[in-house]
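Backbones bend. Shown next:

***
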Amino acid sequence: MTLEIRPFTAADWPAVWAIIQEVIRARETFPYDPDMSSAEARDVWASGRTMVAVLSGKVLGTAKMGPNRGGPGAHIATASFMVAASARGQGVGTGLCREAISWARHEGYAGMQFNAVVATNTAAVSLYEREGFEVIGTVPRAFEHPAHGRVGLHVMFMEF
């Protein structure tokens, strides 16, 4: 079976929301409010360009991407990724990351910036580094991790 990465549709929301809930309620990798409602999450996640990773008809991951900032900063893209716990380590995050990079290059962005990669999320940090990102700074103790206490948030960047 081949992983399909395609645009999000309204019919995907229940599966995407289940992934978002799982990720934010774990409080380990994403700086969203763990009590965020489905409506609040949809307003945030399904705005801009949102993609899903699907295998055998099941949504296993999702990504959102767009400009990192508006105005004079709009030439730098950003993206965020969430993968279902049951699908981690199977290439879903890699596929979504590559899709985001490809899209940003095609759209003419000068680079891509990730604003808040939890330092203890070593799987994500390693993935992004393999794909060409660098940690360009770390905000110390900026994320309250349930097991590790206050840990850093990396800013990661790739210039095109």
Observations:
- The helical segments are 13-26, 38-45, 92-106, 122-130.
- The two ends are 31 Å apart (CA to CA).
- The chain has a mean pLDDT of 97.
